[in-house]
Amino acid sequence: MFDNKNIIYLITKRKTFRFYIFAQTIDLYMNFFKFIFSKLFLIQLILAVALFVILCFVTLQWLDSTTNHDQRIVVPSLSKKTLDEVKQILEEKELRYEVQDSANFDPAYPRYSVIEQNPAAGNSVKENRKIYVTLNPSGYRKIEIPQDVIQKTRRQVEPKLLALGFKIGSITYKPNIAEDMVLELRHKGKRVQPGTKLMKTSTIDLVLGDGKGATINLSDDN
Q1: What H or E segment, with its residue span, contains residue 13?
Q2: What would you measure as the largest C-alpha separation in the chain, in angstroms?
Q3: For residue 47, what is the enclosing H or E element?
Q4: Which key words are in the record (predicted)?
Q5: Which of the listed residues 81, 112, 135 is the one where a domain comes to its end?
Q6: Does 220 reside within a domain?
Q7: What is the DSSP secondary structure assignment for residue 180, as one 8-state letter?
Q8: CB count, 10 Å around CB of 96?
Q9: Which of 53, 78, 212, 221 is the most exposed place for a label (fewest CB within 10 A)?
């Protein structure tokens, strides 16, 4: 059994050990803080940060040179250019192109020239971007004359033909009980039937009923 002296000795020894551990811990923290605020640590920290920045800069430069990272190209204007010119211009810019279905003929543009492009000129795109171009057709497309234009009034027929892109030419009257009813359609002096296809902007002459039985020609003989 332990006597009082032994117990006191053990307690004192334990307290001494704890104090020793505490003192060592305090000393460790003190040395750590001294090192952090020392010139040596600050120099090493500055060198590490500088090295990190340099590595990041070199890496970004390498990416730019190998992958053209974020390189932008201004889209050139292709308006009124032929397909051969488009190919040459875009190849020099390292861009591609694709021809879309031709739109309606536009007399303000040369035939087979670019009338539309997407993206539009002036936009910034990445290398190898595809530019979509629409070419002007060789001429106006042919449009079918509607079926329901005979035995209809002039007031009904004219807006319908104009909306399709035709032009109204001379107006000729012939004997018929129905006044201003469309009896015939003519193009370049020849009679045309509904369903006939004519070039857009073609001129169509109307032959109407006079409502009186007399023939009156209102066209300009000149």
Answers
A1: helix 4-36
A2: 153
A3: helix 39-67
A4: Membrane, Transmembrane, Transmembrane helix
A5: 135
A6: no
A7: T
A8: 14
A9: 221
3-state secondary structure 93-159: CCCEEEEECCCCCCCCCCCCCEEEEECCCCCEEECCCEEEEEECCCCCCEEECCCCCCCCEHHHHHH
139 touches 125 (CB < 8 A): no
pLDDT in tens, 6-44: 555 555 656 665 666 766 676 666 666 666 666 776 777
Task: Tell me the per-residue pLDDT of 4-14, one tens digit each, with 9 for 90 and over.
Answer: 555 555 556 56
Cα 129 from Cα 98, distance rounded (Å): 11
What is the count of structural domains for the chain? 3
Each residue of 174-214: pLDDT tens digit? 999 999 999 999 999 999 999 999 988 899 999 999 988 65
Helix spans in 147-216 (H): 154-163
Domain housing 155: 142-209
Instruction: Tell me the residue type at 170.
Output: S
Shared-domain flag, residues 127 and 175:
no
